[in-house]
């Protein structure tokens, strides 16, 4: 249904489109969609104010409509209605009876309430994320995801569908996607934003291979007082950290922040693995773990400023990439100095996470409502008064002979944030980012892998026999604005160059949307200089109308519309090694999509390329 109206005096046009259809992945569901566009050309000088007011009113109307739908769904549940038959067109009477039987009116349309189905349960391996045929049936939800309302399940399906379209080959499991939705109270846009950023981070730093590739330094084996220990009463994996017995200052001085950060990331990766294992063992969804922190021995030494700073940076990374993984945090034997540490750390912890903290002073954990309410007596560690022997190291002071010099610590940066095979670049309107690759032998292969982190870009490849001028950082952004010198934006193609004379295009331009991951290769024909270019792409406001959409106008008010960001990796291979390197290339870099081994030959340039999204 399309509703349109216009005002002659104000020269404003409003379009409202409504559609009701069957849900694409669950035919028992009804999907309601609504889009609107507003164009105000003249409103007595108050055009911007009128647009903002209209968008606010439109958002309130959508919110009210959602409340009405939820209200009537709740009434159906209160009345005991668990299923409403789907409406179907009336059956046409047989030809001989058409004159005797009157046509009955169609029953009123209704929203079906999904119920549990008697279907075999499915496991994550049986229903891999990204499969177009998977279904979120009731048994699968109950077995692996937990209780979900219809709206929550719809958000999960829509977010997973978006991942299938933009992140082919590297889609996380439903349980992981659900964590990001819960972290943002099932706000689809906010969850999609932080999930996309986390996937980019995991790919950039190859976190998927951390458990297999990282070897813990011997110092961590000897002096890091933490480890996994059975599970709690709810079946959640239990991690114990004897923070009071750990020489945090000594570990930071001897190892640096990077090793401690990798240690914490490996703990979280192991926690995700144990949650999946316990889900299979206990037959119910387990998506988080319990952490027990013993603070006996905590003193002012633990408040060493560089150590607290390192802790805050670690918390920032964990909060952004492992949301909703902490089920409960039990803090035992908190000393008097603990409130000081809590004051420093708590502002950096999400509010929902802080609600999961339980603090016990002295021996309060031994009484009613204490540790036994969360952990079975037989698995309480011996150092907390239990009978279970715990293999967690007792810690101790790190010898000062193992400390690194203060100069080394000050000059060292966190390589996990800075050193990576991927590079990032900013793309501005009128200022593309360009990368130079020199080819000395023909038939060499240029491969690339890049993610569009922000905005839409156009990707081009050019060839020139002339060497471009040394790369210069672009210090003038769009409309003459000054760009920070730290901004990574390189200009190589001289403004005086003429396309077709000084340089030529060797690939068809590729438009890449925000959130997309693109992998591909180009087999070169000539030696010389190849330039990979990412250019700002200004997408039309609406593909079917010249009128801007409300969503586009709102987005333009919230973020800068003249800047894009890409993260890329490139490599040059010899032609004879190209086919044999496909498998190793994919296994060496986290998140690579499968590259096609076959290349298509162009009859014009005799070059070939493959592109995978």
TrEMBL record:
Annotated GO MF terms: RIG-I binding
Q: Where is this region: Disordered?
A: 110-132, 594-613
- Per the UniProt entry, what are the Gene Ontology biological process annotations, in alphabetical order? negative regulation of RIG-I signaling pathway
Q: Which residues form the PRELI/MSF1 domain?
A: 1-81
Q: What GO CC annotations are associated with the protein?
A: cytosol
Which Gene3D superfamilies does the record match to this protein? CRAL-TRIO lipid binding domain, GOLD domain
Q: Which residues form the CRAL-TRIO domain?
A: 216-392
Pfam annotation, one family: CRAL_TRIO_N
Cross-referenced InterPro entries: CRAL-TRIO_dom (IPR001251), CRAL-TRIO_dom_sf (IPR036865), CRAL/TRIO_N_dom (IPR011074), CRAL/TRIO_N_dom_sf (IPR036273), GOLD_dom (IPR009038), GOLD_dom_sf (IPR036598), PRELI/MSF1_dom (IPR006797), SEC14/CRAL-TRIO_domain (IPR051064)
GOLD domain sequence ranges: 418-572
Know the name of this protein? SEC14-like protein 1
State the organism named in the record: Salmo trutta (Brown trout)
């Amino acid at each position: 249904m399309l509703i349109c109206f216009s005002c002659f005096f104000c020269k404003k046009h409003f379009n409202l489109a409504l559609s009701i259809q069957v849900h694409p992945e669950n035919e028992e569901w009804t999907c309601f969609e609504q889009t609107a566009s507003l164009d105000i050309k003249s409103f007595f000088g108050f055009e911007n104010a009128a647009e903002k007011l209209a968008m606010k009113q439109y958002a309130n109307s959508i919110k009210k409509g959602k409340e009405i739908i939820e209200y009537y769904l709740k009434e159906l549940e209160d009345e005991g209605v668990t299923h409403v038959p789907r409406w179907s067109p009336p059956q046409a009477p047989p030809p001989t009876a058409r004159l005797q039987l009157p046509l009955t009116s169609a029953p009123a349309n209704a929203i079906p309430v999904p119920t549990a189905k008697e279907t075999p349960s499915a496991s994550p391996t049986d229903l891999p994320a990204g499969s177009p045929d998977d279904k979120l049936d009731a048994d699968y939800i109950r077995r692996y995801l937990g209780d979900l309302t219809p709206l929550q399940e719809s958000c999960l399906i829509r977010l997973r569908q978006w991942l299938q379209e933009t992140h082919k080959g590297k889609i996380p499991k439903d349980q992981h996607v659900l964590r990001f939705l819960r972290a943002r109270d099932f706000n689809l846009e906010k969850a999609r934003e932080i999930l996309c950023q986390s996937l980019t981070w995991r790919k950039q730093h190859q976190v998927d291979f951390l458990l297999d590739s990282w070897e813990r330094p011997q110092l961590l084996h000897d002096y890091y007082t933490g480890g996994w220990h059975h599970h709690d009463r709810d079946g959640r994996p239990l991690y114990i950290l004897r923070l009071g017995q750990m020489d945090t200052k000594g570990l930071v001085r001897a190892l640096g922040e990077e090793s401690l950060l990798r240690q914490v990331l490996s703990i979280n990766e192991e926690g995700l693995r144990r949650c999946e294992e316990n889900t299979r063992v206990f037959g119910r969804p387990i998506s988080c773990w319990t952490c027990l922190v013993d603070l006996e021995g905590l003193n002012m030494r633990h408040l060493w400023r560089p150590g607290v700073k390192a802790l805050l940076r670690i918390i920032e990374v964990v909060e952004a990439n492992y949301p909703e993984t902490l089920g409960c945090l039990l803090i035992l034997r908190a000393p008097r100095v603990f409130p000081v540490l809590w004051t420093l750390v708590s502002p950096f912890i999400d509010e929902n996470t802080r609600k999961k903290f339980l603090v016990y002073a002295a021996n309060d954990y031994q009484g009613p409502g204490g540790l036994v309410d969360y952990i079975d007596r037989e698995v309480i560690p011996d150092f907390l008064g239990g009978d279970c022997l715990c293999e967690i190291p007792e810690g101790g002071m790190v010898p000062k002979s193992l400390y690194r010099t203060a100069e080394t610590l000050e000059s060292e940066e966190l390589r996990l944030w800075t050193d990576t095979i991927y590079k990032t670049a900013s793309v501005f309107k009128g200022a593309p980012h360009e990368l130079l690759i020199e080819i000395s032998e023909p038939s060499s292969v240029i491969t690339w892998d890049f993610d569009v982190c922000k905005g839409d870009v156009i990707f081009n490849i050019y060839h020139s026999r002339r060497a471009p001028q040394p790369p210069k950082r672009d210090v003038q952004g769009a409309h003459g604005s000054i760009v920070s010198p730290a901004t990574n934006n390189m200009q190589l193609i001289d403004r005086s160059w003429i396309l077709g004379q000084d340089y030529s295009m060797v690939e068809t331009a590729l438009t890449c949307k925000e959130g997309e991951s693109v992998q591909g290769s180009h087999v070169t024909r000539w030696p010389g200089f190849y330039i990979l270019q990412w250019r700002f792409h200004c997408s039309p406001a609406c593909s079917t109308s010249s009128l801007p959409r409300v969503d586009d106008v709102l987005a333009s008010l919230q973020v800068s519309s003249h800047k894009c960001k890409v993260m890329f990796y490139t490599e040059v291979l010899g032609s004879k090694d190209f086919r044999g390197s496909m498998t190793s290339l994919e296994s060496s870099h986290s998140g690579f999509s499968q590259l096609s081994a076959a290349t298509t030959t162009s009859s014009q340039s005799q070059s070939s390329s493959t592109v995978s999204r």
